[in-house]
Design brief:
Blueprint (H helix, E strand, L loop, with lengths): L9 E5 L22 E7 L4 E7 L5 E3 L3 E2 L5 E6 L5 E6 L4 E7 L6 E3 L4 E2 L7 E6 L5 E6 L4 E7 L5 E10 L5 E6 L5 E6 L4 E7 L5 E3 L5 E2 L6 E6 L5 E6 L4 E6 L15 E2 L9 E4 L5 E6 L4 E7 L5 E3 L4 E2 L6 E6 L5 E6 L4 E7 L5 E10 L5 E2 L8
């Protein structure tokens, strides 16, 4: 597997939510359920999910890994109440489910992984809605989005609609608005973003004007919605840029906001994954090819301003995903090239500095991607 092309994620949960911390974010929203702050990684090299508790100073301590029961785990998403975790398995075209221990965050498999509809659909990005009623998977091989209802005990069943076409190719990243009304999918192969309204029973209907072009050769991958639901930020892997779109009342995407598409300066294959702070103030982007993280300040109109030089994750680390803890104090990246998680402190001005220690071993190996609950 070529990990620079993977759309996989590391996922972080923390509960109870700390008083005084900013709320919001895309995806599930919320951080409830566990008494400890816990971080999870999907390990492509061993078909497992590793879990860590987050201690003082952002230090990670490993707990027991869990088998996915499938091949090539790619993406993680967790319910807003912190009770259930789901993993997309690219190699076996399935989704694995787990219950989360409310005391220590340890995972228990929820039975046999569910098969995603379609012929070898290759699910990549997955996300669960804030109300915990529906889960969606972006399928890169069939260019569809599959919908699932989330039942008692976190059990998944296919929605009546089943799947809907993206209207593009190579569906990868997926994000849901904080109000749970809109779903967005990055189509890397066709340089487009598909948007949907989430209706009754989880049925998806295309938003007017969808899919929206992101420009020839842009190869959109990672995307996230701002905590206030006003903007969609997208990493353009193919042209080394990050773009911001204004989200209209019906979920429509306006043309990229003037001066909101910026060269990240990290070269290589360009930006791939994105994460936004809980207060919506800063955006971070990883680059696998150059082993760096770019940081941006987010203006009130969605404008992005690059913050200083990019932060190195270390030679050969190949960071793919990025996530931020619920307090907004720490950022973590999944370093697929070194079988580790890299940790960073987030300063008040958005700059990054390494935690002590700076990295945390992942065993079994090859952690891929990163995502926090509510901000995939």
């Amino acid at each position: 597997m070529t990990h620079t092309r993977s759309l996989s994620w590391l996922l972080l949960v923390a509960l109870p939510f700390l008083p005084g911390c900013p709320t919001g974010g895309g995806g599930e929203g919320g951080f409830g359920g566990t008494a400890a702050a816990v971080l999870y990684t999907a390990n492509d090299g061993s078909n497992t999910v590793s879990s860590f508790t987050i201690g003082g100073g952002g230090v990670l301590s490993p707990t027991s890994p869990a088998s996915t029961g499938a091949n090539n785990p790619e993406w993680l998403t967790v319910s807003s109440n912190g009770q259930f975790l789901y993993v997309s398995n690219l190699g076996t075209h399935t989704i694995s489910s787990f219950t989360i221990n409310g005391t220590n965050g340890v995972l228990t498999a929820g039975g046999t992984p569910i098969t995603v509809p379609g012929t070898n659909p290759s699910p990549r990005g997955i996300v669960i809605t804030p109300n915990r009623q529906f889960l969606y998977a972006a399928n890169s091989a069939t260019n569809t989005v599959a919908g699932f209802s989330v039942g008692t005990g976190g059990v998944l069943t296919s929605t009546t609609q089943g799947t809907i076409a993206t209207g593009g190719t190579l569906a990868r990243g997926v994000a849901v608005s904080p109000n749970g009304q809109f779903l967005y999918v990055a189509n890397s192969g066709s340089d487009t973003i598909s948007g949907y309204v989430i209706g009754a029973g989880g049925a998806l209907s295309a938003i007017g004007g969808s899919p929206v072009s992101t420009g020839t050769g842009s190869s959109p991958e990672g995307l996230t919605v701002s905590p206030n639901g006003a903007f969609l930020f997208v990493a353009y892997r193919g042209i080394d840029r990050v773009a911001a779109f204004a989200i209209g009342s019906g979920g429509t995407l306006a043309a990229a906001i003037p001066q909101a598409s910026f060269v990240t300066g990290i070269g290589g294959e360009g930006p791939q994954r994105v994460a936004i702070t809980p207060n919506g103030g800063y955006l971070y982007v990883t680059n696998t090819a150059t082993n760096e993280i770019a940081a941006f300040a987010i203006g009130s109109g969605g404008q992005l301003t690059l913050i200083g030089p990019n932060t190195s994750t270390g030679a050969g680390t190949a960071p793919i995903g990025v996530t931020i803890d619920p307090t907004g104090q720490f950022l973590y990246v999944a370093n697929s090239g070194m079988n580790e998680v890299g940790g960073f402190r987030i300063a008040a001005n958005g700059t990054l500095s390494a935690t002590t220690p700076a990295t945390f071993s992942v065993s079994p190996n090859v952690p891929v991607g990163i995502a926090t609950p509510g901000r995939p």
